[in-house]
Amino acid sequence: MNVWQAYEELKEALGPEASRKVAMVLDALAQEHVRSEVREVIDPLQVALRQLAEAQVRTEQAIQRLGERIEALAEAQRRTDERLEALAHRVEQLAEAQRRTEEALQALSRRLDDTNRQVGGLAMTIGYTLENAAYQALPPLLEKDHGLRLRERLRRDFVLDTRGIPLEVNILGRGERQGQQVWVVGESKAQLSRQDVDRFVERRLGRLGELLGGPVFGVLVAHMESEPGVRDYARSKGVAVYLSYEFDA
User: Fold this and answer.
1) What backbone torsions phi and psi does residue 186 show, to the nearest 5 degrees?
2) How far apart, in whole angstroms, are the C-alpha atoms of residue 239 and residue 192?
3) Domain extent for 155
4) How far is CA 13 from each of CA 3, 27, 199, rounded to the nearest angstrom?
5) pLDDT tens, 2-53?
6) Does residue 219 lie in a domain region?
7) Whole-model pTM?
8) pLDDT for residue 137
9) Cβ-contact 219, 242 below 8 angstroms
10) How far is Cα 169 from Cα 158, in angstroms, rounded to an integer?
11) Which of 135, 140, 131 is nearest to 249 (CA)?
């Protein structure tokens, strides 16, 4: 029912003026009722829309931050890839350097082997040359200094041990001293040291004396001493020492 319908129905009972006022009041009440119902619907809707807008803002902000984070991660990944690439390149360089080093070491090892063979050959040549000179020089020196007369030529030879293994002896020959047969056993050293004397006495004289079956006279020949007093030390051990410059004396 609208205002005019209410007015028409009330006009006969209340009169025109009163009907009009009553109709206006009813209309006002109706409009207030409608506004109340609309507010009941619109207010929650407005709240929901506001909340939705706020949520949208937060979502957009979160998306923006996520985008920035993704860009940061992408940049970090790019830097990591660059470092890995640089590291891989460095590893390749190190591997190549290692390969060259190994090749250089192998070449150096071959040269050292050659050098060692040459030095060994040179040492043998020096030793043999010294021994060869000693074979000629020692007989008169031993007879003059120690009363030892050789009964055979000095030589380079082998003596078999108890197991049949040959032991090389640099200087070997039979002689006679004070009416007793003795074996002359000697070694040559380019540079004679106290350690050489000790090894000769401990490893050669006693053992060869047993194998040769008779007294042994030890003699060492060298070009020089490694330090002063080596000859005196050898003589205190019962070993004769001659240096190569004495061969022509």
Assistant:
1) -145, 165
2) 13
3) 125-248
4) 16, 18, 156
5) 666 666 776 677 777 777 777 777 777 778 777 777 677 777 877 877 887 8
6) yes
7) 0.53
8) 95
9) yes
10) 6
11) 140
